[in-house]
Write a structure and sequence with these properties.
The chain is of the alpha+beta class. 21% of the residues lie in helices and 33% in strands. The strands form 2 sheets. Strands 3-4-2-1-12-11 form a 6-stranded mixed sheet. InterPro entries: Endo/exonu/phosph_ase_sf (IPR036691), Endo/exonuclease/phosphatase (IPR005135), GPI-anchor_lipid_remodeler (IPR051916).
Length: 256
């Protein structure tokens, strides 16, 4: 595709999504947040969707030698992503965690939606409006972490679809995160109800396996888009990601 010949402004950017597992490897064996920050930087993504990111944790702060003093989304953003938003989902005695979004584009508005279903499992949907200087319309970036029970996920997917339907039809949408959708039920529902397509399913015919990161068996993580002219999967190396979290990341190049 020759973008230089297009009469309208185009924006090309890279997105990355990863469940950071509160900065620990599988089974909480090692704290890997500094190494994970280096790996995220190497991808060079413009927008990063994070799940299970810690806002604070007093117990870990006392016990782990290299535990950052600031919230983990600020530590990961550092000097690379000047804009970030955090949606607190789970609160407990020692701290809290949730979803976060890091962006090189201005975040002009954000809102965290509680999409938890009755019970102890707390889940959220972080909706951020990005305003790249090159575009007149905003880009809607929605970071989600859905429940472990299929009945809960079904209800949460309807909430996600309703949010997307409520947005202006001409505004581009990027929906990414940990869907816990090992049965692949989200694709059809989000396509029918919100006009979303999954980047890897569209290119490869199936979702990419991301869990567990050491030997992926389940396709839990996704990147869905609407109103995007071009979307290309980015294949990331197995290492070092297989030892940084319990989920492998996904990345894609998008053109609006």
């Amino acid at each position: 595709m020759d973008l230089s010949s297009s009469p309208t402004p185009r924006l090309a950017f890279t997105v990355l999504t990863v469940n950071v597992h509160k900065g620990f490897t599988s089974f909480n064996r090692r704290f890997m947040l500094p190494e994970l920050r280096d790996a995220v930087r190497q991808v060079g993504a413009d927008v990063v969707f994070l799940q299970e990111v810690l806002g604070t944790h007093r117990h870990h702060a006392r016990r782990v030698a290299n535990f950052p003093a600031q919230p983990h989304y600020e530590f990961l953003a550092d000097s690379i992503w000047s804009q970030y938003a955090y949606g607190r989902n789970a609160v407990y005695d020692s701290g809290h965690h949730g979803n976060a979004l890091l962006s090189k584009f201005p975040i002009v508005h954000f809102e965290n939606h509680d999409i938890s279903v009755a019970g102890p499992e707390r889940r959220g949907m972080l909706h951020c409006m990005l305003q790249p200087p090159e575009l007149e319309r905003p880009v809607h970036a929605i970071c989600v972490h859905l429940g472990l029970q299929e009945a809960h996920r079904h209800r949460q997917l309807h909430r996600v679809a309703a949010l997307v339907r409520s947005l202006p039809s001409d505004d581009p949408v990027v929906l990414a995160g940990d869907f816990n959708d090992w049965r692949g039920r989200a694709h059809g529902l989000l396509a029918r109800e919100a006009g979303l397509r999954e980047v890897f399913v569209h290119s490869f015919g199936r979702a990419v396996r991301t869990f567990p990161a050491t030997m992926p068996l389940l396709a839990l993580d996704r990147i869905y888009v609407r109103g995007v002219a071009v979307h290309l999967p980015v294949v990331l190396p197995r290492r070092p990601w297989n030892r940084l979290s319990d989920h492998a990341p996904l990345a894609a190049e998008l053109v609006l």
